[in-house]
Amino acid sequence: MRKYVIAIDQGTTSTRALLLDFNGRVLCRSSRDVECLFPKPGWVEANAEKIFISVIDCINELLVLAGTSMEEVACIGLTNQRETTVLFEKKTGKPIYNAIVWQSKQTQPLCEEREQYSDFIQSKTGLRMNPYFSASKIRYILDHVEDAEERAKKGEILFGTIDTYVIYLLTRGRSFVTDASNASRTLLFDIHKGEFDQELCDLWNIPMAMLPEVKDNSDDFGEASFFPGGVHITGVAGDQQAALFGQCCFKEGDSKNTYGTGCFMLMNIGKKPILSQRGLLTTVAWREKGELTYALEGSVFIGGAIVQWLRDQTRWISASAESEEYAKRKPDTAGVYFVPAFVGLGTPWWDDDARGAIFGLTRGADRHNITRAALYSIAYQSKDVIEAMKAEANLDLPYLRVDGGASANGLLMQFQADILQCDVVLPSSVETTAIGAGYLAMIGAGIYKDKEDLIKHHGIDKIYHPKMDKKEADELYDGWLSAVKATMAFKR
Predict the structure, then answer these.
(1) Which residues pair with 316 in a beta bridge?
(2) 75 has which bridge partners?
(3) H or E, element range at 403
């Protein structure tokens, strides 16, 4: 009897896989590290074949740990690092170049050449002109691999984000597909029409013959015939959209924040896209029966990475988990604000030239106050994004659902609730990205009728209620905004 779901989360630095039951409970997990390559400063690449091997290893380990086989697996869900680009041969599935990772800046000149088309691109895609997205990465590979463009025009070279590439190999080349959420991160997808766009492809001189078919997020993506058992891949989404789905953010205004190295926040805005004037991205959240749901997205570049900085550069703490206890040794920040603009500022500021700064130091301020200020900076930056979303969508924020490593920090989560003046909801399992892929797969396999059936399985571990007076919260946030403005005013 088929009774399990495999959920794969292929990330930038690791691949994780979960074995779930039909209630979404995690029965066992496996993981493999993924090596990032840095050929030149600012470049980030990866060996695509090794990414696929890590997926296979994780699936096999799950089966061994659970003492089961693919004959007991009902379906597979896949979520992935978005925008990362692979060009591969149709006949063999072999990559013709390293995967260019979403973080890579090597295609910045290609974006600068097309800067005059920024408004046009946003009007169709909801995104910014930025090397972050896939289009410039495709163009770069076509420019740097001999005969690649001619072969692409003939349909011999194919493009895929990681989902497409993994599915192609898992199905032994029978499925050349992607889902609407990943497609919406390429700069080639018209989010209004819900399809790849000829004008956008012409702008980058990318042959449409190399682009995959776009499917609903819960759909039949093909049989994973790399394994025996006749198991189909029935749910796919980009990682942040999968987390939004895994957090059951199904109503307009429902929002989630993932606290990782950076922070990614998405707000469900319903069936009509809103093109942001406040530095937000507009993206496809998911597609059901051909109908698109949209989300606003904002990103914080330095979230949990500030704790890594405290651990590795200051050596005040020896492990990231110690930051909460260390900060609690003092009751406040002693007026200190820490703006961690180590690599610039993200949403809504988008200042690449800003650099980190600490303000408000006095003789009484010590490393415990500064550590608390560093944790608070994660909450302040998240509020920056949320305030932009609330204004853009004209929606209130009744609560914020949270996940990711730093969501385990109770001090940070309580301050997040205080500074937002709304409840912060921590789920019973923080593996929401992989679980979201599992949920999508269960709908695609017919285990659940629709997403509303999933809500009863979404458990809550803890709710942080605001304890701080609104006036005090507003005053603290005003101080943060002053610190950010001062940071942006300083140029080296």
Answers:
(1) none
(2) 5
(3) strand 399-403
Question: With contact defined as beta carbons under 8 Å apart, do 152 and 141 qualify?
Answer: no
Q: Where are the beta strands (DSSP E) in 186-262?
A: 189-190, 195-196, 213-215, 233-238, 255-259
Q: What angle do CA 178, 270, 267 make, to 5 degrees?
A: 85
Q: In this predicted model, what pLDDT tens digit does every residue of 39-93 receive, in sequence order?
A: 888 888 999 999 999 999 999 999 999 999 999 999 999 999 999 999 999 999 9
| Contact between residue 62 and residue 8 where contact means Cβ atoms under 8 Å apart | no
The pLDDT tens digits for 331-351 are 999 899 999 988 788 888 888
Q: Which two tokens stand for residue 133?
A: 């997205």
Place of tokens 């571990």: 461
Longest dimension (CA), the chain: 69
Give the tokens for residue 231: 């198991």
* Per-position DSSP letters for 117-145, written without gaps between them: GHHHHHHHHS--S-TTSHHHHHHHHHHHS
For the chain, the structural domain boundaries read 4-231, 240-427+459-492
- What's the topology of domain 4-231? Nucleotidyltransferase; domain 5 (3.30.420)
Phi-psi region of 243 (alpha: psi -120 to 50; beta: other; left: phi over 0): alpha
Alpha carbon 119 to chain centroid, angstroms: 24
How far apart CA 411 and CA 425 sit, in angstroms, is 14
Structure token digits, residue 407: 């969501």
Question: Domain spanning 240-427+459-492: which CATH class is it, in words?
Answer: alpha beta
- The pTM assigned to this predicted structure is 0.88
Instruction: Return the exposure string of 292-306: e unless at least 16 CB atoms fall within 10 Å of the residue's CB, then b.
Output: bbbbbbbbbbbbbbb
